[in-house]
């Protein structure tokens, strides 16, 4: 497919709200003629047709099966809830399509491994949306660490607010509070952020975790109901990186009146601080500051402004645009520069280890 426009079919696309419309579409639109969104399959033909009409798409399918089998689609993008990932991604891979699947790749480690093996057997490009890794600020931070800005890394501390997972929610998000769905605080905001931490600081040698639930039930406000909650609202992890540096992590449900993302890296020669308005590093604007040598106060450490030109202003869409740009090159050139399913398995392994450690407490 040398330098051809890649035709995209979405499984799960609402024309004016939700993740696909607010993050994926602007990302694709920023890349010129590299991609063309041509098809959609939602939960019903009526929903698909409504989206196709609103976005001027030529094809609306009654089912995901019809979309993945269409000769008009080169790349299938899966942006539905986690419990449906395995079935839908499997169908797309078996149809020989390239795939972009939102993170988490599977509902647990085993599903992720099965999907990765299937993708490898089909010889297609399969990408998982761990877009914090492609944030310009994270890539800049990786270079700073690699270039010795802080010297030898001694320790790192990460504190984040999940936004959800406190004592109240709405019907649309209640599924996040049920363990069976695999869409909880450790698999979404923490995992997305840890993917970036791993890129910057290297792998994790050992981690010990403890989960706490301050709320055993959750108020579903728009349904005027109180329901059971089976996922933690406090996640505490500590251990060592493969480099030997100490690491301490605390993710909490809801939001804080303080700093909702605080990641510090401390070394023999300097210190770096990353902050944001929410613990989802994949979807918020990150601010990076640092000081080294004789400096006593943190100063901004920002990427070159030219790197932002032509990319969406919304941080999530910008990060996703970088993934799509790399995905395009991977399809054209047979490379693997975008986050792969194999990368996703390694992240699933970290979350699985955290969950098992917490379960043993």
Question: How would you describe this structure to a colleague?
Answer:
- The strands form 3 sheets. The protein has an 8-stranded mixed β-sheet. A 6-stranded parallel β-sheet has the order 3-2-1-4-5-6, with helices on both faces. A 3-stranded mixed β-sheet has the order 8-10-11, with no helix packed on it.
- Helix 5 (109-122) links the parallel strand 5 and strand 6 (126-129).
- The chain has 9 helices and 17 strands.
- By secondary structure, it is α/β, with parallel strands linked by helices.
- Helix 4 packs parallel to helix 5 and helix 6 packs parallel to helix 7 (186-201).
- The protein is globular, with a radius of gyration of 20 Å.
- It folds into 2 domains: 6-130 and 312-339, Rossmann fold, CATH 3.40.50.720; 133-305 and 349-359, Dihydrodipicolinate Reductase, domain 2 (2-Layer Sandwich), CATH 3.30.360.
- The longest helix is centred in the last third of the chain and has 19 residues, at 315-333.
- The protein has helices at residues 18-29, 45-55, 64-69, 85-94, 109-122, 136-146, 186-201, 315-333, 341-359; strands spanning 6-11, 35-41, 59-61, 75-78, 98-102, 126-129, 153-161, 168-169, 204-212, 217-220, 225-228, 234-241, 246-252, 261-267, 270-276, 287-292, 299-300.
